[in-house]
Amino acid sequence: MNITKNDLKKINDFVWEIPKSFRADMRAPARIFATEKLLEEIFRDRSMEQLVNVATLPGIQKHALVMPDAHEGYGFPIGGVAAMDLDEGVISPGGIGYDINCGVRLLRSPVKWFEVEDKLEELATEIYHAVPSGLGRGGRLVFDKNKFDLMLGGGAGYLVEEGFGKENDVLHLEAQGNLSQADPSLVSNEAKRRGKDQLGTLGSGNHFLEVQRVDEIFEETAAKAFGLFKDQLVILIHTGSRGLGHQIATDYIRLMMSAMPKYGIVLPDRELACAPFRSPEGQKYFAAMCAGANFAWANRQTITHWIRESWRKVLGDLSGELEIVYDVAHNIAKIERYKIDGKEKELCVHRKGATRAFGAGNSELPADYQSAGQPVLIPGSMGTASYVLVGTNESAELSFSTSCHGAGRRMSRHGAKKIWRGSDLKKQLEAQGIIVRAGSMSGLAEEAPLAYKDVEEVVGAVHGAGLAKKVARLKPLAVIKG
Amino acid sequence: MTDQGFEILEHTADLRIKAWGKTKEELFKNALRGMAYVQKEEARIKKQEARITKKIQVKSTDMTALLIDFLSEVLTQSQIDRVVFFDANFKAFSDTPSADSGQVELEAEIEGIKVDKFDEDIKAVTYHEAEVKQNPEGVYETKIVFDI
């Protein structure tokens, strides 16, 4: 059944609803956070149909949701959010995605970008060499079996123990960079072998590092709490759990497909494969997924360490230290508490291409962010702008404390490659004064800015809907890609 | 349709291919070639390179799942050893569920070459939109979406 705009009920300028009556197998209504303009774009692919499919999952609470950067995925749409009852609901690896804990970390320097302008080329080159893509040679850090498991169990904190960071680094990471429910013994040997030499590697696709400048501050108080100021040089890291996470997802989707008949679960798309959260399959996947998430935090911690080394090497001690602003996961399932029908209960919140956005006062936030709220990091498309937002308390009611995760694609990678050549794109970026260090020109073409939605429009929708508020806009100085 | 047995189609974020073959085995081989082409466009040209072979066994609930699980298994081996596998010889290929397990299964020797670097880092082979079926001309075909 094709969905058209006529099937939607307008709740307000930023919220649209597909009623439960739209399709007989829906267990909850579906809501789309978007401006009218973004809605038009979302209708160009099959995101809506995929969102309706998500609304059929057992145990779904309130609404199946999709963020303004929505686009077609497989199973869940990208930008999809679904919160499940722990006793009657399911956990679906497809609702997290293959890149478990793909996420973003922002580092801040104490300097203004023009104070180190003459060193930027060298810094970009140094970082490009320090952080391998992992498509060719492996990473520079390989743990033995024992340490690898300790890392899967300990996340970013384990890397700090191993000398890859400062003790207080973990305070400014979502979940402090470690999900304690992780069980490394439930991660297959294949997954461990895929991840063995991938710690501290960036990967390909939309993963990147950017040296950026703070272009504009929208909210002074929150910016101050996050240590951000105008013209500041900051560095953004966007990567995930690499082959280890991909293999965990592959292994468990397969397991769940064979287990579904046992639980009488019938789904409109195999990629939604799931099992009851409390079932052995559900619990095993959750513990393995947590280990995958820990790997991703360890990965971003390792990369942080090498960027800090590059920073010191190029700029010496005079330019101070790089500190972590925050680190968010945008492909993950978390156990969080929300009010449902007036009663608070624990739910399994799936976020696939969506970012948690806690408001002020949430007990998980570090002391210095308590009065501001959680930093929400939104990487824009390559060479455009990225955003720092801050979570709100009203988002708990609206979206299970969730915001968007990026600009959102609107054109296929293949299509982008047909239109743009990487070398031309490099020239265009360089003409704007942006330094480019990329391993693959076709990889660069796939990420052409016009292949994405307008990040300003996406962030505007999130801000307008009250899911998160704008704090700062970041503009690129150097783009580093695998 | 070209004679290479697969073609690259459009997908917003990921990579979708169509593969076909006169027999199921041929479809599986062509899908494997499609995946190899995505991983490394020139994988088949370098004939002088030393071949690497590996034996794999896959069991699944039905023919579509068997194809996806087969490609997933090849991808896993490919990623671990940094080898692009572009051919397979099937030692066993049962397309009716076995009486004991109720599953379809295959045994294959896959063949490939070591690469310095992949062009594309395929994260996973998804079940999304995959459905092995015969078209009116009797050719087996399916779409396959790769997460990249």
TrEMBL record, chain A:
E.C. number, please? Answer: 6.5.1.-
Q: Report the cofactors.
A: Mn(2+)
Q: Which InterPro entries match?
A: RtcB (IPR001233), RtcB-like_sf (IPR036025)
Catalytic residues? Answer: 405
GO terms (BP aspect): RNA processing; RNA repair
**Record's catalysed reaction(s):** a 3'-end 2',3'-cyclophospho-ribonucleotide-RNA + a 5'-end dephospho-ribonucleoside-RNA + GTP + H2O = a ribonucleotidyl-ribonucleotide-RNA + GMP + diphosphate + H(+); a 3'-end 3'-phospho-ribonucleotide-RNA + a 5'-end dephospho-ribonucleoside-RNA + GTP = a ribonucleotidyl-ribonucleotide-RNA + GMP + diphosphate
> Can you tell me which residues bind Mn(2+) 1?
99, 207
Residues annotated to bind Mn(2+) 2: 238, 330
Residues that, per the record, bind GMP:
206-210, 330-331, 379-382, 386, 405-408, 481
Query: Which PROSITE patterns does the entry mention?
Result: UPF0027
Q: Which domain of life is it from?
A: Bacteria
List the protein's name: tRNA-splicing ligase RtcB
* Encoding gene per record: rtcB
From TrEMBL, chain B:
Biological processes, Gene Ontology terms: tRNA processing
What keywords are assigned to this protein? Calcium, Metal-binding, tRNA processing
Q: Where is the signal peptide?
A: none
Q: Which residues cross the membrane?
A: none
Recorded GO MF terms: metal ion binding
List, for all copies, the residue spans of the domain called Archease: 6-148
Query: What is a single Pfam family found in this protein's UniProt entry?
Result: Archease
Superkingdom: Bacteria
Similarity annotation? Belongs to the archease family.
The name under which this protein is listed is: Archease domain-containing protein
